[in-house]
Amino acid sequence: MLIRKPSDIRSSEITPKDQYLNRRKFLAATGAAVGSLALAPGADAAKLSNVVKSSYTVNEKVTTLEDASHYNNYYEFGTGKEEPAHYANTLITSPWKVQVGGMVAKPKTYDLDDLMKIAPLEERTYRMRCVEAWSMVIPWDGIPLAALLKQVEPTSSAKYVAFTSLFNEKQMPRAKFAGIELPYVEGLRLDEAMHPLALLAVGMYGETLPNQNGAPIRLVTPWKYGFKGIKSIVKITLTDKMPPTTWNIANAREYGFYSNVNPMVDHPRWSQASERRIGELFKVKTLMFNGYAEQVSSLYTGLDLKKNY
Ligand code: MTE
After folding, report:
1. Domain spans in the chain, listed from the N-terminal domain onward
2. Which residues have C-beta within 8 Å of that of residue 203, sequence separation ≥ 6?
3. How confident is the model at residue 71 (pLDDT cuts 50, 70, 90)?
4. Whose CA is nearest to atom 8 of ligand 1?
5. 236 touches 179 (CB < 8 A)
6. What pLDDT is recorded for position 44?
7. 74 C-alpha to center of ligand 1: Å?
């Protein structure tokens, strides 16, 4: 993501978005061999049925599925923004199991199908803010993380939730160039994880997740920077200790545990005061907690958000 020197940055990351996306459209129109597979977003996506619309939805212009599935961070499949769409087809997403354990009364390993039945599938359009100062608006389909946690019954000692992604070198041959420790790990405080906005997404735009977006199941916490949204989750562990998180391990000065969207706390190397919506021309102001302050600010009463970034 951000620990690379400018010389490491691929042209896809510095090409102005419009030019970059037009180039993609041109390739599609001319049927250019390169990436023709990757140009079909959701090629093997299945439509999700029985999805209910949630009131936790913003009424803003939705980013296209094409953009949301071709401008990704998924380091296990390459560090360039276009690479996950090209290479994540080697990820095997079925069968899939998620092991939920640690400080819980009822540990359980879930098949994806069982997990999806814990609560009605909801569609929620969330504002998503990347720490790199770009943003998208994405309709996610999933279940509240709280529904799963309640089912396994956290014990009174549990204070945090730790998440682990799949790490499989055969399926992820580019992972050796990721430059970060793998498997990818993330964490939330238990009360953050229980917040109704925290979603375990199994789909987007009404279809199953494209591999590059974290199939078959990933975390979505819209008031936090995008890197908290750990992809392709295989393990969820309740614990009494603040769990390690991938970007904090990679660069603790730049990435903290909380990673709440905060326009008043700049990244050491750039401002977080504004953002560029992918697909839009002009920058917009970044909102505290990404616009979700009314819902989440009480989680952080008394916490110094400059220190706890
Ligand atoms: N999860 C895993 N396993 N590996 C990753 O490299 N990247 C993170 C996060 N989850 C990442 C991950 C980062 S930096 C971002 S911004 C979001 O995924 C991007 O999600 P998106 O591609 O669906 O927009």
Report:
1. 6-300
2. 48, 51, 121, 140, 141, 142, 209
3. very high
4. 227
5. no
6. 75
7. 5
| Ligand 1 atom with the shortest distance to the CA of 75 | 6
pLDDT band at 1 (very low <50, low <70, confident <90, very high): low
Q: Ligand 1 centroid vs 115 CA: distance in angstroms? A: 22
Contact 112, 96 (CB under 8 A): yes
- Residues recorded for the chain: 309
- Closest residue by CA, ligand 1 atom 9: 227
In angstroms, rounded to a whole number, what is the distance separating the alpha carbons of residues 223 and 151?
Answer: 24
pLDDT digits (tens, 9 = 90+) for 223-234: 999 999 999 999
Q: Which CATH superfamily is domain 6-300 in?
A: Oxidoreductase, molybdopterin-binding domain (3.90.420.10)
Predicted model pTM: 0.89
Kindly give the number of the ligand 1 atom that is closest to the alpha carbon of 180: 6
Which is more confidently placed, 206 or 42? 206
Alpha-carbon span 270 to 287, nearest angstrom: 16
Using a 6 Å CB cutoff, which residues line ligand 1? 1, 72-76, 130, 165, 184, 213-214, 226-227, 229-232
Closest ligand 1 atom to residue 130 Cα is: 16
Residue pointed to by tokens 């992972």: 175
In this structure, the strands spanning 185-189 and 160-165 are antiparallel
Return the structure tokens found at 282.
Answer: 């002009």
What average pLDDT does the segment 206-216 reach?
Answer: 98
pLDDT at 17: 45
Give the angle 186-229-44 at the CA atoms, nearest 5°.
125
Spacing of C-alpha 287 from chain mean position: 19
CA of 72 to the centre of ligand 1 (A): 7
Q: Considering the chain, what percentage of its residues have pLDDT values greater than 70?
A: 86
CA of 145 to the centre of ligand 1 (A): 18
